[in-house]
Amino acid sequence: METKKETKRGDNMDKMKTWYFTFGCDHPLAKSVQPIRASSAWHARLKMIDMYGKKWCWQYDEEQFAEVQKKWGPYELLQEAEIDVCEASEIAQRLGVAS
To answer: What is the mean pLDDT of residues 30-43?
Structure first.
């Protein structure tokens, strides 16, 4: 029987997916998208809030973002960020919200 090797920090790394965040038309990064790899939509959102505060617009999974690009044209991809469970917990604690 095969077992998955768990790491001390980021034991959900194999379950991570990329989430895409847009900024809205009045933002300086309006035609850019911030990709964030995270184990959940909530953890990705915590990282986005940590990076940009509340100055962003929408969050999409990969399928949803593919549809957005078809409809609205190409976006400039910013450098991908990543968040693991430990960092999500630290950010949530700092923001005073549940992780």
So the answer is: 96
Residue 67 parent element (H or E): helix 62-72
Q: Give the type of residue at 65.
A: F
Residue span of the structural domain in which 88 resides: 16-95
Output the pTM of the full model: 0.82
Cβ-based burial of 11 (10 A; exposed 0-12, middle 13-18, buried ≥19): middle
Which of 28, 68, 33 has its CA nearest to residue 48? Answer: 33
Structural domain count of the chain:
1
Q: Is residue 23 part of a domain?
A: yes
- Is 1 a member of any domain? no
